[in-house]
Amino acid sequence: MSHSDSTLSTFTAADGDNLAVQYWPPQLGVPRRGVVVLVHGLGEHAGRYERLAQTLTSWGFAVHGYDQCGHGDSGGVRGRLPNTMRLIEDLYDIVDSASRRVAPGESLIVLGHSVGALVACCLVLLRDVPVDGLVLSSPAFKPYLTPLQKMFLSVLPRFAPNLTVRSPVLPEALSHDPEVVEAYRADPLVHDRISGRLAHFITEAGPRVLARAGRWKVPTLLLYGGEDCVVKPQACRQFAESAPPGLVTAHDFPHHYHEVFNELESEPVYAALRDWVEQRFPAPAAAPPRRRSPAYL
Asked: Looking at the whole model, is its pTM more than 0.85?
């Protein structure tokens, strides 16, 4: 994890595993808007979201990022999922903890990428949580899988749910930016493992979320790339079209790969996020300057 202006701590999960947590405080002098919880994707960690976190703090948000079970600096075997609900329960606990730092009049937003976005969707569908808004970056509703991968991942959960194999995610499919790809490959906290149980969670949860999109209740910003070859853009469009009118704001960036915030042309992505934040969670009005009492001689 990057240290920058953030602080590192650990959060003990229900099963005793430690989750690595990174906290970025809101920038001084900026009116506070609330708290954002960052949920990373498969094989990565919260430290890769430094630029995004710093941007959010400049808009008045405190940011909590954590490494999911089996990822980054958190406990657990790389890529292994102890039980089907583990990722959802961990996010529930992190959100519950973060919500205690939300002052009256402030908002709590969960921002998830890929599998992290899928976990965030499952959380708001299954649990009663004080989440005011969701930002979904390339959610893993329907991953791209070859016929061989589909067959393999259909068998693995039944006979060897804890066995980990190489993830189908290719570094060069994440971004057009060669520096992003090279940094990903060189990052010691990134891994390429996925277990049968984790694969089963992803492939089962995505269709369930899509099937319930018509009952969506949380204001949501959906950001995805039209050239994404990790997850299917068509599934993102399906989600947006199935949700109640006015609830999901969707942006399709036609020439972007999977990590839209890490693309060569990321400015439109950040602009879309800023516009949505300003519309849904405007900054509180600045207090008028205090008038000085007249001096009497």
From this structure: yes
